[in-house]
Design brief:
- The complex is a heterodimer of chains A (256) and B (274).
- Chain A has two domains: 178 residues, P-loop containing nucleotide triphosphate hydrolases (Rossmann fold); 47 residues, no CATH class.
- Chain A is 32% helix and 24% strand.
- Chain A is built from nine helices and ten strands.
- In chain A, strand 7, helix 6 and strand 8 form a beta-alpha-beta unit.
- Chain A starts with a strand and ends in an 8-residue tail after the last helix.
- Chain B is built from twelve helices and no strands.
- In chain B, helix 4 crosses helix 12 and helix 10 runs antiparallel to helix 12.
- In chain B, 35% of the residues are buried.
- The chains are: A alpha/beta (256), B mainly alpha (274).
- The interface between A and B is medium-sized, with 35 and 30 residues.
């Protein structure tokens, strides 16, 4: 049984409105890194919100360990966006502990738990600062910590590293891979970046746009075992996977 | 930490101490100049009055104004007048400005109620305080209550509409984040809407210090037996410019004190903004 099973999701925002998602199905196994890749307009963010339980689909089901959780949020699914969504009025420590507190943990306990992971994510010494004192990369790290500290089974990430410059993105993605492998997390990553999809994933689902529809499922297996993105990028199969995804998106080879 | 990390961290280097010192000395210079200008104006006024260049019957003089304040302090009138006005302002402000802010924030819960009530709130806001003040004297008497009502009336609409606008502008993604952690609307209100609106709420509070004082003085003009407005009214009906100007000075000091209190609140509530 898959940890996360998305079955036949369709979505129209209004009854006679355009179809945003058409019969989208995918699954993610335990410890698996699954990426949904597609061009803009393929309904990635809508799909993301449906999986997160923030938006009801018009049809279809979201199942978590076989249990239907469609349209409801659950502590088993964590959520990281491109915008880091740190609360500017909370210290970094309270931001990291926010999810725990909302889930009902006492503030003191939440702080203690949050504090214990700062060293592991290179943010030690920033506990009592406000997010405005952090750089973009540090903020995105804090956002990931806020989700990880609640220990969800599945982490949804929507173009989480899109706004960062390239070396920093490579750095944070390497850290991400290492973390989710170490802690045995399932990740569903949403992006339009094919390179990102190949280097991060165990499996890629390709969506086409208008309506968003799964057109291909591509298992990825790189010869390297490294969690370092720059190493993974150099794996010899990279180009084949890149091309497979590129053609699935439905683009003709570009004219020279 | 790798080299990449360090580059990332350097992006938020603190402002240099030299830059901070430059900013400090600029502030010191500004305050010194401002104090100098104030002292010079008062001195020119006093010298003009003593040499006869300024008509003291019409324009009084700093020493005469000071004398009035000392005399009224000794007789206890000063404490009574300032105390009365301060009490009216404080209570009316809490009911009107703070109460209005709370209602404005709570309207976030129902866009329907907010939209429904919008024209009525606008209608109330369109009434000049000077026009409604005589009615409140009829309804609530000539004592403290009517002034508190006038002060509250002067503040409530600005605070209500401003804080509602702030609440509406709360980031939808932050609200979704709270939901994704399983928070309900109450949690979202407490954790996102209220803190996110504080900038707006505080701005309205600052504006309302002025409106509150105007309300209290207007109320006292219409009917009162104590208060700074009462003192100014008595002074002008006796052609005592000394007392009127002393009253104005007391109004300024009262506004200053309330502004400092609100700034203190701002400093605590918005400490994350810097």
């Amino acid at each position: 049984m898959s940890v996360l099973d998305i079955a036949g999701i369709s979505k129209r925002y209004t009854e006679d409105g355009p179809q945003v998602l058409k019969d989208v199905s995918f699954r993610a196994e335990k410890n698996e890194f699954v990426t949904i890749v597609g061009p803009s307009g393929c309904g990635k963010s809508t799909l993301f919100n449906i999986v997160a339980g923030l938006l009801p689909p018009s049809r279809g089901e979201v199942r978590l360990d076989g249990e239907v959780v469609t349209g409801t949020t659950t502590p088993h699914i964590g959520y990281v966006l491109q915008k880091d969504l740190l609360f500017p009025w909370l210290t970094v420590l309270d931001n990291v502990g926010l999810g725990l507190e909302i889930q009902g943990m006492r503030r003191r306990e939440a702080r203690e738990r949050a504090r214990s992971i700062f060293a592991a994510y290179n943010l030690e010494g920033y506990e009592d600062k406000y997010p405005s004192a952090l750089s973009g990369g540090m903020r995105q790290r804090a956002a990931l910590m806020r989700t990880l500290v609640t220990d969800p089974d599945v982490i949804l990430m929507d173009e989480a590293y899109k706004a960062l410059d390239y070396p920093l993105k490579i750095q944070l993605e390497s850290e991400l891979l290492e973390t989710v492998r170490e802690r045995g997390k399932t990740v569903v990553f949403v992006t339009h970046d094919i390179e990102e999809a190949v280097t991060l994933s165990d499996r890629v689902y390709v969506l086409k746009a208008r309506p968003g529809e799964v057109v291909n499922e591509i298992p990825i297996s790189l010869t390297t075992d490294s969690t370092r993105i720059d190493q993974r990028r150099l794996a010899s199969e990279f180009n084949d996977y890149y091309e497979a995804i590129w053609t699935s998106i439905g683009r003709a080879p570009l004219a020279a | 930490m790798t080299a990449l990390d360090v580059a990332d961290d350097l992006a938020v280097a603190a402002p240099s101490t030299a830059a901070r010192r430059r900013a400090m000395s600029y502030r010191t210079l500004l305050i010194a100049l401002q104090a100098g200008i104030a002292v010079a104006l008062v001195a020119a006024w006093e010298i003009g009055a003593s040499t006869g260049a300024v008509n003291t019957f019409l324009f009084s003089s700093p020493s005469r104004v000071g004398q009035v304040i000392v005399e009224r302090w000794q007789s206890g009138d000063l404490v009574l007048d300032v105390g009365t006005t301060a009490l009216e302002v404080a209570l009316g402000f809490v009911i009107g400005a703070v109460g209005g802010s709370v209602i404005g924030l709570l309207l976030w819960y129902s866009k329907f109620v907010a939209d429904l009530s919008a024209p009525f709130i606008a209608a109330i806001g369109s009434i000049p305080v000077l026009a409604i003040a005589p009615m409140t004297i009829i309804w609530f008497g000539t004592g403290l209550e009517s002034k508190i009502v006038i002060v509250a009336f002067s503040c409530v609409v600005v605070s209500l509409t401003t804080s509602y606008r702030g609440a509406r502008m709360a980031d939808q993604d932050l609200l979704n984040l709270v939901r994704s952690f399983g928070g309900n609307r109450g949690t979202a209100f407490r954790r996102v809407v209220v803190p996110a609106s504080m900038t707006w709420v505080v701005q309205a509070l600052k504006l309302n210090v002025g409106f509150a004082i105007v309300g209290a003085i207007v109320g006292e003009y219409i009917s009162s037996n104590a208060g700074i407005g009462h003192m100014i009214l008595l002074g002008s009906s006796n052609f005592s410019v000394n007392i009127v100007l002393a009253g104005l000075a007391l109004v300024m000091v009262t506004v200053l004190v309330f502004t400092l209190i609100v700034s203190g609140i701002e400093h605590i509530v918005l400490r994350w903004e810097k």
